[in-house]
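Quick check before the chapter quiz. The format below is the same one you will see on the exam, so make sure you can read both the input and the output lines.
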Amino acid sequence: MAIDQPAGALSVGQLAARAGVRTDTIRYYERAGLLPEPRRTDGDHRRYGAADLDRLLFIRGAQRLGLRLAEIRDLLAVRDTGTCPCGPAETVLREHVSEIDREMARLGALRAELTGMLTAMPGPGCPDPVPGTWCAPGQAANAEGGDRDVLVLR
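Here is the expected output.
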């Protein structure tokens, strides 16, 4: 395939290969309104140009950042007006940073809880656990009492 094909000469397979996606992904993006309906040949084959590739690469980049398709669609709508999408993009990106911060806090608390459970484990001399728990017989009462630091498997 020649690199400098005329505008609108890429097939769906060629566009997919250049963007690193599957052809059904392109068709899905068209149905979802992220990509415009492509030009078609007399034989009803889709044909795409450089603008379609640029748009598809934008979508993929935004997805790598964790943006949802609805957010990407909104940013594309602003971009399509010719207006700078920086303001709306900043709002979306700040919200995603906040979500990441909340998730990191949740994971930090989970890590601390798991580390505490590991520290409380008796080590190599550990007796067999009570059936259905991780607990040694002396700790089983805590599990029945609802101790958060004991994992009970039921």
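If your answer matched, good. The mean pLDDT is 83.
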